[in-house]
Design brief:
The chain is α+β, with helices and mostly antiparallel strands. The protein folds into three domains: 2-76, no CATH class; 81-223, OB fold (Dihydrolipoamide Acetyltransferase, E2P) (Beta Barrel); 227-351, FAS1 domain (Roll), CATH 2.30.180. It has helices spanning 2-18, 22-25, 31-49, 58-73, 88-95, 108-111, 136-139, 230-234, 240-248, 252-255, 268-272, 284-292, 302-308, and strands at 80-83, 125-133, 143-150, 159-166, 178-187, 197-199, 204-221, 261-266, 295-297, 310-312, 318-324, 327-330, 333-342, 345-351. The strands form three sheets. It has a seven-stranded mixed beta sheet with strand order 9-8-14-13-12-11-10. A five-stranded mixed beta barrel has the order 2-3-4-7-5. A hairpin with an 8-residue loop joins strand 3 and strand 4 (159-166). The longest helix is centred in the N-terminal third of the chain and has 19 residues, at 31-49. The N and C termini lie far apart (80 Å). 31% of the residues are buried.
Length: 363
């Protein structure tokens, strides 16, 4: 039984290694390695079927050879930067913005297949969705790859499939962003040799060598747009008191506008520990000043704040940033959680609340 399984595995591996479908699932540079492994397994299976006794160390020899194949093949593993896998929920929200009667959807997996459906055949107008992958060899031809992933049982955790998209305005798209592309399918006249790269969880990725898409319209969804809004990031447990202060001071609309901000959000415990008036007790002018003292115009990570040393808040006062013994403070308040990215800025959670001015702090 073991001999039959080995022989069948070897024959199947050899057929796959020599077939023209190999490039769909594997980097073609792997071909000599998989052919060698397949021949080895096939010979071992045939030999045992013929009654040849295994010599001592035969299994060890097979293991060493297969290990050598892996070691030699390691340099051919994806060397180009990876891109993420699309989120079904985000895809659904994108499609809600599209008139699907006017732009009927074609699955990218169908479009990248060697045997596409009639809807994805050359000359047809299609609309599909995928993750943008920028590659140098494609940029030279005003193109990028639009990728999706497909799960395979036993063969691989996932395999990436995609199609070349011709688009003149490459500066308008970013590597890794989700995009809906509408255009016309064409036959690929000059296949492009491309490096292997990761697409989502896929170890190997393949771009269709037979067809490409000439884009007429692209609706992109930037990585930034997948982030929470500033209001969503500040609202919620353990930080809702500052969110309530923002709402009462009528600052939400400004934070959700087009400008970028850095917000130092005191956690609820910090506001509870305040001496004197709490935000809910402050008159409007005092509350507005309190809120503005925690907001800086511009997008600053904590590392950037440490580098510049100080910034001005919306009230015009300085916020000094100090770092010592692995702890960073802003106007003496400890930064508990840093660099919470939102669509239009960044949030740092602090304790206690910020002092009104940094002038009384040591330089």
């Amino acid at each position: 039984m073991e001999s039959c399984i080995l022989a069948m595995m070897g024959a199947g591996m050899l057929w796959f290694s020599l077939s023209d479908r190999y490039g769909l699932l594997m980097n073609v540079k792997f071909r000599p390695l998989t052919v060698s492994g397949a021949v080895l397994v096939l010979l071992l299976g045939v030999a045992t079927l013929a009654g040849v006794q295994k010599r001592r160390g035969a299994n060890t020899f097979v293991f060493v050879v297969m290990l050598a194949v892996v070691v030699v093949g390691k340099p051919y593993l994806p060397a180009v930067g990876s891109i993420g896998q699309s989120d079904p929920g985000v895809e659904a929200s994108l499609w809600e913005q599209v008139d699907t009667k006017r732009y009927p959807r074609v699955l990218l997996l169908d479009l990248s297949s060697r045997r596409p459906s009639e809807e994805a055949s050359p000359g047809r107008s299609v609309t599909t969705i995928g993750i943008v992958k920028r590659l140098g060899v494609l940029s030279d031809r005003s193109s990028f790859a639009l990728m999706t992933t497909f799960m395979y049982c036993c063969l691989a955790d996932a395999v990436g499939f995609g199609v070349r998209v011709q688009w003149d305005d490459l500066d308008s798209i970013e590597d890794g962003q989700l995009a809906i592309v509408s255009g016309t399918v064409h036959n690929e006249e000059l296949p492009i040799e491309m490096p292997n790269f990761r697409s989502g969880r896929a170890m190997v990725s393949s771009v269709n060598q037979h067809r490409y898409l000439v884009a007429k319209q692209i609706l992109s969804y930037r990585q930034e747009d997948r982030l929470p809004t500033m209001t969503d990031a500040i609202s919620g447990p353990r930080k809702e008191r500052f969110g309530q202060a923002l709402a009462t001071a009528e600052m939400w609309s400004e934070l959700d506008g087009p400008d970028r901000y850095t917000v130092f959000v005191p956690v609820d415990l910090a506001i509870d520990a305040m001496d004197g008036m709490k935000p809910v007790e402050m008159p409007p002018t005092v509350l507005e000043s309190f809120v503005k003292a925690h907001i800086v115009r511009g997008d600053y990570s904590l590392e950037e704040l440490e580098e510049v040393g100080s910034v001005r808040n919306l009230d015009g006062e300085y916020i000094k940033v100090r770092s010592a013994n692995g702890e960073t403070t802003v106007n003496g308040s400890r930064v508990l959680f840093k660099n919470r990215r939102t669509r239009n800025g960044v949030i740092h959670f602090i304790y206690p609340v910020l002092s009104p001015d940094a002038s009384n702090l040591d330089p």
